[in-house]
Design goal:
The complex is a heterodimer of chains A (about 250) and B (about 260). Chain A has about 250 residues and is of the alpha/beta class. Chain A has one domain: Rossmann fold. The N and C termini of chain A lie far apart (about 40 Å). The model of chain A has no long low-confidence stretch (mean pLDDT about 90). Chain B is mainly α. In chain B, about 90% of the residues lie in helices and about 0% in strands. Chain B has 9 helices and no strands. Classes of the chains: A alpha/beta (about 250), B mainly alpha (about 260). Chains A and B meet through helix 2, strand 6 and helix 4 of A and helix 5 of B.
Chain lengths: ~250, ~260
């Protein structure tokens, strides 16, 4: 469904992705792990065309999106939903307007139908009845869940999660994990999660990719990756710092 | 030193190229997509109604100062009654549109850059794009259309209040004969002067909206990036308005006064 071929990306003189290649099957749940600042989010943003690579291709059902302009990409993005690290809710709108945004722009549904879809989506993320609240009145966990409701309300085929549990306490993180699983199983969507939370990776991933040193360092099922004897993989999974990390 | 100068010219040229491509994208969107009436109404309120106070104060005090200064000079050669004619022509074709545009660039240009810049650094622009919405269609076009509409209206208000205030200062404070002043003002002020002012205002509306939105949408990360984008939006819009004013004065003056 999604195929990434020899993707390269630099920011100024800094090369951050150096020939990354992998594929994602329809309905699969893929987790991308790696250190903070390890450009996982950069890779994720390439999948939906928010960033253009310097070289390489991103194919969605065989269609190369790296050569498309912004208007052509809008058509492809109808198939995606994305949950951002900071939720990225529109702060000038209330929750209902945020969640129903895409429908209002589309103008195909009546206000009544939009309200029903918004309500269903908020129920899916266990936040019924908060339609009239503003984003500033919500906690971090609630904002993430509203972001998730906004991403799934128009039933996309692929949902991308950018660090969905970062900055949340373990209990809220746990609830977000369960919601992601619920969305995946109920809507049968292809899921790509970028995280450095090992519990999330273990729970959601049917396959795990580890990014290290500008490329994919390890890949496999959760059992294979978490059981890897490789010192770099092991160090990351166990969360052990070394002398160099302490100095940096 | 030569290398530094080359880099500066290169960056400036690159920036102008990007701004031109942005303007082209806005133009395509303007004629190719429907703007939401709700968004346009809100922008008309935000850019127009909320700029009233600053524009009216600017217009009134400019007219008053211009009347006083002109009177002090004209009084020496006993041309007191020509004072209001100067105030009227200046307010219509130059001071009204330019000062209104500079004041609105300070208020609205900064606000556009800050709002869109904050949306960019908090990933709200990316969120728009993932929701299959082009940021230019949703954010830029309603602001541009609103700026084109409100600028001539605000300028007209500033001109009217400037002339009225100048008349008040001239007649009631400085003792200029009201009947002759009024006669000279009507005699020397042409509808073409007003037309020049309103055309200029229309153009300045576009300049300040395009530069404000461009700076916001391309701002760098962090609070410093938003701050810099805001400052640059005001500075560049003001400079662009002043430079454009010179060329518009030449072109419109030549065109309209030869008709």
């Amino acid at each position: 469904m999604i195929e990434v071929r020899k993707l390269k990306k630099s920011f100024g003189p800094n090369l951050v992705l150096d020939g990354v290649s992998f594929g994602i099957e329809k309905g699969e749940s893929l987790v991308i792990i790696g250190r903070s600042g390890g450009v996982k989010s950069v890779l994720l943003k390439h999948l939906i065309g928010l960033l253009k690579p310097d070289a390489g291709q991103v194919l969605i059902d065989g269609e190369d999106i790296t050569v498309m302009n912004e208007r052509e990409l809008l058509r492809v993005r109808h198939r995606f939903g994305m949950v951002f690290q900071g939720a990225a809710l529109f702060d000038s709108m209330n929750v209902a307007e945020n969640v129903g945004f895409a429908f209002r722009r589309d103008r195909r549904l009546t206000e009544k139908e939009i309200a029903r879809k918004v309500s269903e989506s908020l129920e899916m993320v266990d936040l019924p009845g908060i339609e009239h609240k503003n984003p500033s009145e919500l906690s971090g966990g609630m904002r993430k869940r509203v972001g998730l409701a906004r991403a799934i309300v128009y039933e996309p085929e692929i949902v991308l999660y950018d660090e969905p549990t970062t900055g949340l306490d373990p209990i809220v993180s746990d609830s977000i994990d369960h919601l992601m699983l619920r969305v995946r199983d109920r809507l049968q969507v292809t899921t790509v999660v970028v995280t450095h939370d090992m519990r999330t990776a273990r729970r959601l991933g049917q396959r795990i990719l580890m990014l290290h040193d500008k490329n994919i360092y390890a890949k496999g099922t959760p059992e294979e990756v978490f059981g890897s004897p490789d010192p770099v993989v092991k160090q990351f999974i166990d969360g052990v710092s070394d002398e160099r990390n302490l100095q940096s | 030193m030569i290398r530094d100068a080359y880099n500066r010219v290169f960056r400036w040229t690159q920036g102008m190229g990007r701004l031109t491509l942005f303007a082209k994208e806005v133009l395509c969107s303007l004629f190719g997509h429907r703007t939401s009436g709700h968004d346009l109404t809100y922008q008309l309120y935000y850019l127009g109604v909320k700029s009233q106070a600053v524009v009216l104060v600017t217009g009134a005090f400019t007219g008053m100062v211009l009347a006083a200064q002109t009177y002090f000079q004209f009084h020496k050669v006993r041309m007191d009654t020509a004072t209001l004619a100067v105030v009227s022509v200046s307010m219509c074709s130059e001071l009204g549109p330019v000062l209104t545009a500079l004041m609105v660039a300070g208020r609205v240009g900064a606000s556009l850059a800050a709002e869109l810049g904050t949306m960019r650094v908090t990933e709200q622009i990316d969120a728009l794009r993932t929701l299959a919405t082009h940021p230019v269609d949703y954010l830029v076009v309603p602001r541009l259309v609103a700026a084109h509409i409100v600028m001539p209206v605000l300028t007209l208000e500033a001109i009217a209040l400037g002339i009225t205030a100048g008349y008040g200062v001239g007649v009631f404070l400085l003792g200029i004969d009201p009947a002759y002043s009024w006669y000279n003002m009507l005699k020397h002020t042409d509808a073409r002067d007003l037309a020049i002012g309103l055309i200029k205002a229309f153009v300045y509306g576009g300049i300040l909206a395009i530069i404000g939105c461009y700076k916001g949408l391309t701002c760098r990360e962090g609070a410093q990036g938003v701050g810099q984008a805001t400052t640059e939006a005001v500075v560049y819009a003001s400079i662009a308005i002043l430079i454009t004013n010179f060329f518009l004065t030449l072109v419109l003056g030549t065109l309209l006064h030869t008709l």
